[in-house]
Amino acid sequence: MPTATTQSQLMQLHPGDRLQYHGVIWTVEDYSTYDDPNGYETREWLLKSPTGKEYYLLREVDPQHPENRINWYISEELKQPKVFEPTTSQDVTVKLWEEMRDQREPYPELKVFSRTYAFESSTQGSYQGEEGRSGRITWDYWDQEHQWNLAIEAWPDHTLAIYSTRVVQPEDFSAVQKAPPAIRSAYSSRPNPGSPDSRTWQVLIAIGMTFTGILFMIFG
Fold first, then answer.
1. Which of 27, 65, 134, 166 is the most buried (most CB within 10 A)?
2. What integer pLDDT is reported at residue 191 of this predicted model?
3. Which helix H or strand E contains 182, and what residues bound it?
């Protein structure tokens, strides 16, 4: 039975590393950070399964809730969801980006699929990722049980990203496998997504990770 993972092991994850979640081995594809002037911050690891499914593993530090300051979440980006204002059943999806960038008052409640969420907080800060630093506005909503989060992000390039997020514990993860130096170096020097060399890089990484997986199966 795989050994449960600790917080310190998750904190040391780098692109190329692998870990198990819900019986699936996930590869860490990217790492980024986010912070705002009030001390709120997140660390974000992009996880990818062998079938191409993607999750974000998030570690949140929230100084406004000292009794529960550090939290872990697993997040999935929703593809073209419709966001409704529950009291009027109006689809507000197309208006969200402009309203957020104009710093308008957030909706008290929003509904996505069959779940209703209540507004909790708005943050505006700096996101540090592969492409450099960028400003991001986030509206956070929670369901009544405070187990499911709806995060809506407005980016400067007119991108509106919507995520469904749930609470997890470090013990939900196991079998952390550190990438060999050659694999980790390849991740750090990879081309930007969409560049002509990106596909070649992905093929090379896939070959390398397959070879690494075989070694793990042979030697444990």
1. 27
2. 53
3. helix 181-188
